[in-house]
Amino acid sequence: MALPRGGHLASASTLPTGPGTSGDVTRAGTAPVVAKASSSAEPTSTVSATTAMTDSMGEAEEGAPEPTAAPGATLAPVQASAKGTVHPVAIPAEPWASEGRAVRLSIEVEDGLTIDESTFAATVAGILSDSRGWQKADGVRFVPVSPEQVAAGAGVDVRVTLATPALTGKLCGPLNVTKANVSCWWGGRAVLNLYRWIRGATSYGTDLTCYRTYLVNHEVGHGLGHRHSKCPGAGRPAPIMVQQTLSLEGCTAWPWPTQK
Prior knowledge:
Layout (H helix, E strand, L loop, with lengths): L30 E4 L14 E4 L33 E4 L11 E10 L6 H13 L4 H5 L1 E5 L2 H5 L6 E6 L1 H7 L12 E3 L2 E5 H6 L8 H16 L37
Parallel strand pairs: 4-5, 4-6, 6-8
Antiparallel strand pairs: 1-2, 3-4, 7-8
């Protein structure tokens, strides 16, 4: 569990936030939980966020082992900082569930990132709409909110945000994320640290695709109200809420909320 940092958090007033996301967290270790709602397809009439009084939400993974390059290879470069502001990107069409409690979804990218934002959005959307994902495991249906709807003030329950290490440190509030370059859930955002998006983690070896799947599912899992969990037994697939960036605890890596 990440411990609060000292000092005052720099203002993030330039970052776009929709209703139900800014100010949801009232103290370190709390985060909004998606409540049950009707099956209406309208993004503006779906779930509202409430504050979960738990000490396991909004956590970051501390002390994560650093990825290492294979012999004769070098680690991929990571952009340390960009403009420090974010913008929503278009979410591609996917087989989103038609039933279940609605969770309004936005995907964001930090301004100035040297990545293909449409590819990032497609990756995240593909993960969250997969039949092995939260829609099946948690009985939810993600409702994409377009950039135009966000600009018009539409509510958002979960924002998946790709940010440089510098901005990750600000968006994650009092959580210690900078030392180990990890990600977090904080203030309505699943903040994905670009460092881990590019370099992965030792627990997944060279399988960057599976690690990214784990990263999205784990942080969004916090947004759905799930706490960290433990490995249930040596050699078994790790539950998605195990801090797999830090350690598999004897389990085998598994990036999905549903079990094998």
